[in-house]
Amino acid sequence: MFFSTRFGFIPFFLLFILLFCLPLTAGTNEFRLGSERLFSDYYDLIEGKNIGFFGNKTSRVTLDRLIEDSRVEVKRIFVPEHGLDGTVLAGDSVADSLYRDIPVVSAYAPGKRKIDPADLSDLDCLVFEIQDIGNRHYTYLTTLYLQMTACAQAGIPFILLDRPNGGGDMVEGPVLEGAYQSYIGLFGPNAHGMTQGELARLFLGEGELLDGGRYDRQGEYSVLTSLELHVVEMQNYDREKGFWQKGYSGEDWISTSPNIPTPLSALCYKGNGLFDGYEIKEIVSQYSSMDLVQFQDIQLPRLKQKEELLYFIDRCYDNWNFEGLQLVPVKNEKTGNWDILHFRVTDLARFHSTLATLAILYTWEELYYPGEENGYWDRDRFDKAMGNGWVSDIFMKEQLVPFAQLAERVSRDEEAFRAIRANYLIYN
Fold this sequence. Notes:
CATH class of the largest domain: Alpha Beta
Low-confidence stretches: 1-10, 12-26
Distance between the termini: 44 Å
Number of helices: 11
Shape: globular
Strand order of the largest sheet: 5-6-4-3-7-8-9
CATH superfamily of the largest domain: Uncharacterised protein PF07075, DUF1343
């Protein structure tokens, strides 16, 4: 049987394909989170199971869907720093609670940073989903690692629902040295450009990278290699775009913690989160009527006049090109001083937040602390966030080396890490 069209005669079976099959495949290029695919392509991992769920408000939709699914039973909910609703301030203890009559167990309390394996003993698996921002010094990186070890010790599968890296594919900053390992610094460069699914694969395959002063892979952590890991992959993820997948905008962002209200805050935090222990301050709350955003604005404490701030900006540009970024002078309405620097990101792909921060620190040291006097109020805190001591050593020298040398050393670290991570990437 044939049907006439303006293209001529088409056999019936071809017309059937055109009319009925094509609509079924029209959405194949649509971006889908791992959590969306769990309920279609990966449902066998959880069907009929008693499950634990590790997440926060960024994964509340998934949690609610699991609770309402009669084919599974959510027996326990585990939460990281900032709690289930994401409102607990950084460093503050998260208390146990209830959510929809299900126990909520804190994995962030004094002396506690991971699930007690005893709390997993009656579970068939743990489902993990948190929106991360891709930074070494943001605690969700270490949180992922520690919960993986807890599941390995309990002998239950770890099911990770993959999400975009909030910072995209950019690898940034010096690689952490083992002696500086901490809860805010597990391994690698300041920004790794990997999804959590890719990180989980790396954790299983690169034990020596994780063997440092705090998390010794000897003893209990060596059991991690026995973990049954399932990564529920995203569909059609563009790693260059990071959070900004097709159809996504800043309005879709759910704050991952109180001081990361926007995806641009997450990008800028890669560098501006490194000011800890130094007198330059990242802005972490709004100033009166000023439209300041956390980590997109920093405060330079000794500046007062606009001319001083403009001169400082010019010297910054002399030291480095700040590709993808404009440094914008802002008057502080609270003090009347011109002491605020706004980060206006103009090109996501070229913006290197860590080098921008290092160039600002370098220029500040060059102008206001020549010689061995420095702007640290706690150098140990600074080194801990930076993941090494060599950056502060450079700033302590009486004669600063050219900034290009510092940038080149950072670049070598980045290239070395890219070579390692290439073995564990899931998405092109």
